[in-house]
């Protein structure tokens, strides 16, 4: 499990936004409502909740400092 600051990866950011799977799902409108992750994959949802509570994004930190 990651604690502290996450290392940004520009390559992974671009890949996540331009993937074929994402484009198909987005255009077909087959998105689940927010909060349904616990029903679909509870193990992943639990991991993500803990991960997001124990680590932080450097870009969000910079954004808060520049406000």
Describe this structure in words.
The protein has 67 residues and is mainly α. It has one domain. Helices cover 64% and strands 9% of the residues. The protein contains five helices and two strands; from the N terminus they run βααααβα. Strands 1-2 form a two-stranded parallel ribbon. The longest helix has 13 residues. The chain is extended. The mean pLDDT is 85.
> Mean pLDDT, as a whole number?
85
Number of DSSP E strands? 2
Total discrete domains? 1
Biggest β-sheet strands, sense, barrel: 2 strands, parallel
Features:
67 residues, two-stranded parallel sheet, 9% strand, extended, Phage protein
What's this entry about, in short?
With 67 residues, this protein is mainly alpha-helical. The protein has five helices and two strands, in the order βααααβα. It has one domain (4-66).
Task: Explain the layout of strands and helices.
Elements: E1 4-6, H1 10-17, H2 20-28, H3 37-40, H4 42-54, E2 55-57, H5 58-66
Parallel strand pairs: 1-2
């Amino acid at each position: 499990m990651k604690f502290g600051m996450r290392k940004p990866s520009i390559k992974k950011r671009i890949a996540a936004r331009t993937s074929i799977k994402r484009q198909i799902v987005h255009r077909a409108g087959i998105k689940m409502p927010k909060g349904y992750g616990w029903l679909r994959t509870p193990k992943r949802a639990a991991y993500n909740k803990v991960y997001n509570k124990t680590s932080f994004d450097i870009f969000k930190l910079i954004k808060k400092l520049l406000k």
